[in-house]
């Protein structure tokens, strides 16, 4: 097991997590050389990735939520190293992990290190990478304004509660969307550009997305007369609810032009702009995922 060597980059808030400690201990008993480094401040994840690569670690583990996964993935992409990536989901919502079928229990998640790493796509917005999803509009505002304390108490349900409490602040945005074989313009309440399927604590904005098809799934929720009813359908989740109120497409790239800056959330990181270009980098990362992960597209012949 000469390749059974990994470094866990652990979000600082999880440093005293006893389940993580026990999971690491048992993974070591299974024969893995597993080192742990803890983040303290902004920029630590990138520094730790570079240090791990210099030390010869072939596998890196992002221990945290979607934001931590994005940070570690971004550092890996910038390094252009061929290291593998795994996720130990420790966030409040764990949207990517839930959609990918990654266990939330630390020991079970670490067991995926024994699964072969598979090529997965990475999305980009104006050159900024995201592994899971880019969201915009009111849904993005809800994600950004939900307090850490509420997320700790309610998990993904915190986003729904925040959204319900802020109906009075609902404002639509306007944009012109264009991609291969797709064009739409108008006012919208929410936007999802999915490499993964869900964001904001379980909002299935792109329920059919896969992360190895070389494409991005687009979900636009237009601003109708019944704004409150439409947003309630969106926030309550569910495949049929989203499909009933949204415009959808699957594209290799998407350009968005807006008269005013649109707020965008990339896996928890806020950005904004009037001119947005979304692209996909096929197979840019190799990730340890369950063999039957719903996010993996199967070959057409079933082989």
Range of helix content: 25-40%
The CATH class of the largest domain: Mainly Beta
So, CATH architecture of the largest domain? Sandwich
Number of domains: 2
Q: Over the alpha carbons, how many angstroms does the gyration radius reach?
A: 19 Å
Order of helices and strands: EHEHEHEHHEEEHHHEEEHHEEE
CATH topology of the largest domain: Tumour Suppressor Smad4
Principal-axes geometry comes out as: elongated
Uncertain stretches: 140-168
- Main beta-sheet strand count, sense and barrel state: 9 strands, antiparallel
User: Beta-sheet strand percentage?
Assistant: 35-45%
- Given helix and strand content, the structural type is alpha+beta
So how many helices? 10
Estimate the mean pLDDT confidence: 85
Count the beta strands.
Answer: 13
How would you characterize the overall build of this protein?
- 29% of the residues lie in helices and 35% in strands.
- It has 2 domains: 5-114, Rossmann fold, CATH 3.40.50.10330; 128-282, Tumour Suppressor Smad4 (Sandwich), CATH 2.60.200.40.
- Strand 3 (59-64), helix 3 (66-79) and strand 4 form a beta-alpha-beta unit.
- The chain has helices at 18-29, 44-54, 66-79, 95-100, 106-110, 138-145, 148-154, 157-165, 227-236, 239-245, and strands spanning 5-10, 33-38, 59-64, 84-89, 117-125, 128-130, 133-137, 173-179, 182-194, 216-222, 247-251, 253-266, 269-288.
- The chain has 303 residues and is an alpha+beta fold.
- The chain is built from 10 helices and 13 strands.
- The longest helix is centred in the N-terminal third of the chain and has 14 residues, at 66-79.
- Mean pLDDT is 85; it is low at 140-168.
- Helix 6 (138-145) packs across helix 8.
- It starts with a strand and ends in a 15-residue tail after the last strand.
- Strands 5, 6, 7, 8, 9, 10, 11, 12 and 13 form a 9-stranded antiparallel beta sheet that branches. Strands 2-1-3-4 form a 4-stranded parallel beta sheet, sandwiched between helices.
């Amino acid at each position: 097991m000469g390749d059974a060597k990994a470094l866990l980059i652990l979000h600082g808030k999880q440093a005293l997590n006893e389940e993580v400690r026990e999971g690491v201990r048992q993974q070591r008993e299974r024969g893995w050389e597993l080192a742990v480094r803890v983040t303290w401040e902004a920029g630590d994840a990138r520094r730790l990735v570079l240090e791990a690569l210099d030390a010869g670690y072939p596998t890196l583990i992002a221990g945290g939520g979607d934001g931590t996964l994005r940070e570690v993935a971004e550092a890996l992409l910038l390094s252009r190293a061929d290291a593998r990536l795994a996720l130990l989901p420790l966030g409040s919502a764990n949207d990517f992990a839930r959609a990918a079928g990654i266990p939330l229990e630390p020991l079970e998640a670490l067991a995926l290190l024994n699964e072969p790493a598979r090529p997965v796509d990475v999305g980009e917005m104006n050159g900024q990478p995201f592994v899971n999803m880019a969201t915009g509009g009111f849904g993005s505002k809800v994600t950004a304004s939900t307090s850490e304390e509420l997320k700790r108490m309610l998990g993904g349900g915190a986003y729904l509660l925040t959204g319900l409490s802020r109906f009075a602040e609902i404002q639509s945005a306007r944009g012109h969307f264009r991609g291969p074989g797709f064009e739409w313009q108008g006012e919208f309440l929410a936007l999802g550009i999915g490499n993964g399927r869900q964001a904001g604590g379980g909002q299935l904005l792109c329920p059919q997305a896969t992360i190895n098809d070389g494409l991005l799934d687009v979900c636009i929720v237009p601003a109708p007369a019944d704004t409150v009813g439409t947003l309630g359908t969106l926030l309550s989740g569910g495949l049929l609810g989203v499909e009933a109120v949204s415009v959808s497409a699957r594209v290799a790239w998407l350009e968005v032009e807006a008269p005013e800056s649109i707020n965008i959330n990339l896996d928890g990181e806020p950005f904004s702009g009037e001119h947005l270009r979304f692209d996909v980098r096929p197979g840019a990362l190799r990730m340890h995922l369950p063999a039957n992960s719903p996010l993996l597209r199967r070959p057409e012949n079933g082989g």
